[in-house]
Write a structure and sequence with these properties.
mainly alpha
Length: 171
């Protein structure tokens, strides 16, 4: 088949391929996408076409296979997504709870209220009988102190970092 012949077959047969897929229960947008992919694939494999009179039938078969491949791929991806959703551990809450153990008790109370219980600054201020600005400042200082405590606890060991411990003379 010539290039012009295939172009004419495409003009005549594209809508036929879409309708063929629609008759198989494929959604319209997916049918158009699969039909387009099938006609492109047919163009790439034009040398495999045995009889020019059956080009539309040949491309329809390709389109059905393209659609089946898309369905299989979506099914596998959906199964993977479903499998991912089975693990519902809130790692962030675990990290926050662990960091809160490093804080002073007074700071821990307001940080727990905000980060673990989701209480707003307005609600915390009302509960403590102070202004929202005071709570914001206390939260800022509590976060800063917690950050410093975490940094101190996770600082590299002087031996591991190549630094010499105190009291050791250079050789």
């Amino acid at each position: 088949m010539t290039t012009e012949g295939y172009a004419q077959a495409y003009e005549r047969g594209f809508n036929l391929t879409v309708r063929f897929l629609l008759s198989r229960g494929v959604q319209r947008d997916l049918a158009r996408e699969a039909a387009q992919a099938a006609w492109v694939k047919g163009w790439e494999r034009l040398a495999q076409l045995r009889d020019d009179n059956f080009v539309v039938t040949w491309v329809n078969t390709i389109a059905l296979n393209v659609h089946r491949r898309l369905i299989r791929k979506e099914t596998r991806a959906g199964a993977a997504r479903q499998h991912e959703k089975t693990v519902d551990i809130d790692v962030a809450a675990i990290d926050v709870a662990r960091i809160l153990t490093f804080c002073r008790p007074s700071d821990r109370v307001i940080l727990e209220q905000q980060y673990l219980n989701g209480v707003s600054t307005h609600e915390i201020a009302t509960a403590h009988g102070v202004t929202e600005t005071a709570i914001r400042i206390r939260l800022l200082r509590a976060r800063r102190d917690a950050r410093l405590q975490v940094q101190r606890r996770t600082a590299p060991c002087p031996i591991d970092s190549g630094l010499k411990p105190l009291g050791v003379d250079a050789a």
